[in-house]
Amino acid sequence: MANIKSYPKYKESGLQWIKNIPEHWEVKKLKIFSNVQASNVDKKVVEDETPVLLCNYVDVYYNDKINSQIDFMKATAKEEQIPKFTLRKDDVLITKDSESPTDIAVPTWVEEDLEGVLCGYHLSLIRPNCHEMNGRYLYYSFETSGIKEQFWANANGVTRFGLSKDSINNALFFVPPLEEQKQIVYYLNEEISKIDSLIFEKKKIIKLFQEKKRSLVLEVVTKGLNPNSKMRESDIKWIGKIPEQWQIIKLKYLAHMKSGETITAEKIHEVGDYPVFGGGGLRGYTSDYTHNGEHVLIGRQGALCGNIKFAKDKFWASEHAVVVSANQGVNINWLGLLLESMNLNQYSVSAAQPGLSVSTIKNLLVPVPPKEEQQLISDFLQEKNTDIEEIINLTKQQIKELEEYRQSLIYEAVTGKIDVRDYEISFVS
Question: When comparing pLDDT for 128 and 100, which is higher?
Answer without folding.
Answer: 128
